[in-house]
Amino acid sequence: MTHQVAILVFDDVEALDFAGPYEVFTTASRVHGRSHPHDPPLFATQCVARHADSISARAGLRIVPDSTFAACTTTDVLVVPGGVVDAAIACEHTLAWIAATAATATTVAAVCTGAFLLARSGVLTHGPVTTHWEDVDDLQRMFPALQVQTGKRWVQNDDRGHITTSAGISAGIDMCLHLVAKLAGHELAARTARQMDYAWQPQP
Q: Which of 62, 72, 115, 162 has the greatest number of CB atoms lying within 10 Å of its CB?
């Protein structure tokens, strides 16, 4: 089975917020393929934007999205990164796409201030969450029904593990390795971290 992974990108997205998860899922697929050469790819990962035009990430990095909201029709794993989200959170099209995609995805994750986008789109309504340490107070103030936690690399929102949020920037890598472990086993997640030469923190 191939898990279809969609990573939202938008102007002013934090580079590592989307590039970290992209690296995790593509590396996991490559590592898995070495021991299962005849299987289909474990993860098919793409960056999705409202338009096909290039995106200017925070600090000016320019990227070209792989797909658009209209063309991305099947998503198993939705990753919503953060960054400067003022424009994205005011975009009705972006919020509608997040809500519609999250409704059918089996796994939804937010990195850093991506939690604001999940909350504004109505995907995150209550329960435990986390975000970048600098934005904890704002998230709690704007969405008082959420239980915003600190000192965690990632937080599972419900017992099913449908929605997971991570702390800032690099914490998204730890969270996505956790998601690989959940979807394909701890051994593959550990091998993926090893391949990335990354000191994974398996516990939140």
A: 115
Q: What is the pTM of this model?
A: 0.96
pLDDT at 97: 97
Task: Quickly tell me which residue has 């340490």 as its tokens.
Answer: 133
- Strands 154-156 and 163-166, sheet pairing: antiparallel
Per-residue pLDDT for 158 more than 90?
no
In the sheet that holds 67-68, the strands lie side by side as 67-68, 43-49, 3-8, 77-80, 107-110, 163-166, 154-156
Q: Which amino acid is at 122?
A: G
Report the candidate in 81, 144, 148 with the shortest Cα–Cα distance to residue 118.
Answer: 81
Q: Give whole-number Cα distances, 168 to 35, 92, 101, 172, 175, in Å.
A: 33, 25, 23, 7, 11
**The pair of three-digit structure tokens given for residue 169, joined into one six-digit string:** 């920037």
